[in-house]
Specification:
CATH class of the largest domain: Mainly Alpha
Helix content: 25-40%
Mean pLDDT: 84
Order of helices and strands: HHHEEHHHEEEEEEHEEEEE
Number of strands: 13
Largest sheet: 8 strands, antiparallel, barrel
């Protein structure tokens, strides 16, 4: 059958064009991710780069398996032996890079110091290579270097193979005027006037343009879910509380002066209250939030000396809108939640700085490091309801958040802004 076939099978043709488009697009993504600033957009490009790489691997294995049972058509009659040999070697080379490039990339990801999971196109979990992630740091570094060097070598080999392949196709189509291009473009005739050849060229240009124009969307951080039960979630920051008497008419609560509360009052938080953070990653704002946090609040503006607050934040609940990035935050390089699952802010000193403005001076225990921290906030009272908002800034490096390559502040700035917006009800 192979001897009488005049072109590749339909399955081989479809796989050829899919893999070709993916490789060209992948090259452009690699250039952009490697040359750009290491920010959220670049991170998203790398995640897509990984997804496309695994897709190329799977398609290439499928094509190789198909070829074993469906040999290619014979070479054109009269083709020189050196051209047949060169064509054979180029085809072998393409299988080497189509399988080897994703494998070396897979090694790089598996041996990375930061355990970032792979989700194909943000949806399908893809495992690391067995054993490599559990190696000792020195052995893991060796595998990382093997993957890195192998990947770089194969990228350069890809450039060479593409140049040879495209040059050979042009030679056969324009100079030799044989049926080689028709093997992958059924019905194509030799010569410059063949529309399928121009369609293939336009497709190549479109894929290149798509690689440069594609801009991944950086998802906004998910808003923290606040449970209705105060025992599950209460305010993560100090809030003041002054309210009218519980039996006061609702209409009068907005205008009647609030009674002075000489003793601290316990407060709980309503649904919709948020606790978030903003970091700067290569000049781009990276916003996140915590979805699980609790607090014990005892506070009154008239009893600042006896007010107190204890906040507990589940650090594994940090969300930035990217599942793969979020999965790395609990690791040793960032929050180290295995050893330090909670961050705790405690305050027993409060200052009034203006009308409806206060500051809580306390201590933040984060990643096993305790440092003083002041939280300024504004307060508005309406009956039994208090609303508070505030922003403060802390230095992540003083708490050890960011180890290894992330300890440097040239990519992720040292200063992290923490903000909150909440509504509290008096118990």
């Amino acid at each position: 059958m192979a001897a009488t076939r005049t072109r590749y099978t339909t399955v081989a043709i479809v796989l050829h064009w899919l893999i070709a488009a993916a490789i060209i697009f992948q090259i452009i993504l690699g250039w952009r991710a490697g040359d750009g600033p290491k920010g959220p957009t670049t991170f998203a490009l790398f995640q897509l780069h990984k997804s496309i790489g695994i897709t190329i691997l799977l398609l290439s294995l499928a094509r190789l398996g198909w070829r074993l049972f469906n040999p290619p058509p014979p070479a054109p009659v009269g083709q020189p032996n050196w051209e047949k040999t060169a064509s054979h070697l180029v085809h072998i080379g393409f299988y080497v890079i189509m399988i080897g490039l994703p494998l070396t990339g897979w090694i790089l990801v598996s041996a990375s110091k930061i355990n970032i999971p792979t989700l194909l196109f943000g949806t399908i979990p893809w495992p690391h290579l067995p054993l490599i992630p559990d190696l000792a740091p020195a052995a893991k570094h060796v595998w990382h270097q093997i993957g890195l060097i192998g990947h770089e070598v194969m990228v350069k080999l890809t450039y060479l193979l593409l140049l040879l392949h495209l040059g050979a196709v042009a030679k056969h189509q324009v100079l030799d005027k044989d049926a080689v291009f028709g093997n992958m473009a059924p019905g194509a005739m030799p010569g410059l006037k063949e529309p399928r050849a121009w369609l293939a060229a336009a497709g190549l240009a479109a894929v290149i343009a798509a690689g440069y124009l594609y801009m991944p969307g950086v998802k906004p951080a998910a808003q923290p879910a606040v449970a209705a039960e105060p025992a599950l979630v209460t305010a993560p920051v100090p809030t003041a509380a002054v309210a009218t008497a519980p039996d006061a008419p609702a209409a009068a609560s907005a205008t009647a002066p609030a009674p002075v509360l000489k003793d601290p009052v316990a407060w709980t938080v309503s649904k919709g209250s948020t606790l978030g953070f903003t970091a700067s990653w290569s000049g781009e704002a990276l916003e996140g939030s915590f979805t699980r946090w609790t607090a014990d609040i005892l506070f009154s503006p008239e009893a600042l000396d006896r007010s107190k607050l204890t906040v507990s934040i589940d650090m594994a609940s940090a969300k930035t809108g990217d599942d793969q990035r979020d999965a790395s935050l609990p690791g040793e390089d960032f929050f180290a939640t295995a050893a330090h699952p909670k961050a705790v802010f405690s305050a027993s000193k409060f200052r009034k700085t203006g009308e409806g403005r206060f500051v809580a001076d306390g201590t933040l225990d984060l990643r096993g490091v305790k440092k003083p921290l002041s939280l300024p906030f504004s307060l508005k009272i309406d009956g039994d309801t208090a609303t508070a908002r505030g922003v403060t800034t802390l230095d992540r490096t003083t708490f050890g958040v960011g180890q290894g390559e992330w300890a440097s502040t040239d990519q992720i700035a040292a200063k992290v802004k923490v903000s909150f917006a909440l509504t509290a009800k008096r118990k």
